[in-house]
Design goal:
Blueprint lengths: L10 H14 L5 H9 L7 H15 L4 H11 L17 H4 L10
Helix pairs in contact: 1-2, 1-4, 2-3
């Protein structure tokens, strides 16, 4: 049987997000974020996992909305270039690890 879809949002996703948020905003409280976002995560369904992480972000990012948006945007994986056919060029594991991507963005 295939792995449940909800497991794509995991403790590893939380740790990955914390790493990149702290990279771009050093005051980010990785420990507090991890505790809030990861508490009981494995017992939650997909949407509840995303909502719990969103709540952890709201509690640990800057209170100023514009500043929080700047931090989130800076933590994203840099955009990839596209070839003439519109296909991404340079999509690699290293490129995806350069910032938040995948389920952490959801």
């Amino acid at each position: 049987m295939a792995e449940p879809f909800k497991n794509l949002i995991s403790q590893q996703t939380v740790a990955h997000a914390a790493e990149h948020l702290a990279r771009v905003w050093p005051p980010f409280d990785r420990t507090r974020f991890g505790q809030i976002a990861g508490s009981g995560l494995e017992k939650l369904e997909l949407k509840a996992r995303a909502l719990q992480i969103a709540e952890a972000l709201a509690l640990t990012l800057p209170a100023d909305f514009a500043h929080a948006c700047t931090v989130l945007e800076a933590s994203l994986t840099p955009p990839l270039p596209f070839d003439a056919e519109g296909e991404p060029v340079g999509l690699s594991e290293a490129a995806c690890q350069a910032g938040l991507s995948g389920w952490a963005v959801w």
